[in-house]
Automatic annotation (TrEMBL):
Coiled coil: none
Keyword Transferase: yes
Species per Swiss-Prot/TrEMBL record: Lentzea rhizosphaerae
Protein name in the entry: GAF and ANTAR domain-containing protein
PROSITE patterns: ANTAR
A Pfam family per the record: GAF_2
Keywords: Kinase, Transcription, Transcription regulation, Transferase
Domain named ANTAR: residues: 166-227
Keyword Ion transport assigned: no
Gene3D superfamilies linked to this entry: 3.30.450.40, Winged helix-like DNA-binding domain superfamily/Winged helix DNA-binding domain
SUPFAM superfamilies per the UniProt record, alphabetical: CheY-like, GAF domain-like
């Protein structure tokens, strides 16, 4: 693990977070960079979905992906334990007995792996998944390697949570803009009805609302249709005293 390679890894991870962030592509980049930088043989990444169910979102090899999928199907193993406890979990040898997760260990051995180190994707009290490092040879990773791996996991976590915040912010901004535009349309439609039907603005609003309810349409859609001339205003006015 050279300093140059380490610096390139963090620069590349940071660059990926800037524009047009693609979480899936980022997870695959992280998995591959773990192999290149940490001298492990494979890496896999599990993330929790909206139901807090773990999903495989990145893997550096098919073998790692299959082992991860086996663990999720069995719902037991070091990577799941890491996520649930928010603490690192190490299985230094899949061959050494007794094994806490014998089925997982057998699957990992069959895939050609001798050990795994699972690190939490965690920011303060929030854990969103686990980064799993596989080696062909049995044995624990060095302390410095673990520190670097956890730093990479931390960068990934920050990036994913930031992307989530941006997505929510953009969604909220879009909803707010839609609400503002709808309010303008409604005011315009009230003006049209008030002038055409010689009624007050409050009565015009009640006519719009009654029409939208009776036809199960959004109020903003009815207002837009009134402004665009797609609704017979006189017919709408004739309904304005009918009960809802």
């Amino acid at each position: 693990m050279s300093m140059e390679n380490l610096a390139e890894t963090f620069v590349e991870l940071a660059d990926t977070l800037v524009a047009d962030f693609d979480p899936v592509e980022f997870m695959h980049l992280l998995a591959n960079r773990c192999v290149d930088t940490l001298a492990v043989d494979a890496a896999g990444i599990l993330l929790a979905d909206d139901r807090r169910e773990l999903q495989v979102v990145g893997a550096s090899s098919d073998a790692a992906r299959l082992v991860e999928l086996f663990e999720l199907q069995d719902r037991r193993g070091p990577c799941m334990e890491c996520y649930l406890t928010s603490a690192p979990v190490t299985v230094a040898s899949f061959a050494e007995q007794p094994q806490r997760w014998p089925e997982f260990s057998s699957a990992a051995l069959d895939a050609g792996f001798g050990a795994v180190h699972a690190l939490p994707l965690r920011l303060r009290a929030q854990t969103i998944g686990a980064l799993n490092l596989f080696t062909v040879k049995a044995g624990a990773l060095g302390e410095s390697t673990i520190r670097v791996a956890q730093a990479m996991a931390d960068v990934a976590t920050i990036g994913l949570l930031q992307a989530q915040i941006i997505t929510r912010r953009d969604l909220l901004a879009g909803q707010l803009q839609h609400a503002l535009q709808s309010r303008v349309l409604i005011e315009q439609a009230k003006g049209v009805l008030s002038e055409r039907l010689s009624i007050g603005m409050s009565q015009a609003f009640e006519a719009l609302r009654r029409y939208s309810r009776s036809r199960h349409q959004h109020l903003s859609a009815v207002a837009e249709a009134v402004v665009a001339g797609r609704i017979d205003v006189d017919a709408l006015g004739a309904e304005r005293r009918e009960p809802t």
